[in-house]
Amino acid sequence: MSPQTYLPEETVVRRGLEALMAALGPVDTARFLSLPRSRYADYVEWHRQWQAQLDPQRFFDDVFGPLPGSDQGGEG
Q1: Is 67 helix (H, G, I), strand (E, B) or coil?
Q2: In the predicted model, is pLDDT for residue 75 greater than 60?
Q3: Which of 39, 37, 33, 35 is nearest to 19 (CA)?
Q4: Least crowded by CB within 10 Å, which of 17, 43, 60, 70?
């Protein structure tokens, strides 16, 4: 596996703007860059509320499936 090399920040910004301009054009690129970011400000609070009601075992079962030999449909 080769080590990851990162582009300089200036290059990332330039290429990102070029990609936006090519895909959206100048007007919608400007609109995209000026979109309000306030709707993401409540993300931490939303995540805390989600975690408070989270059943970890059910979450892991949903993501990974029940463990073999568990009483949730496994052979056991």
Answers
A1: coil
A2: no
A3: 33
A4: 43
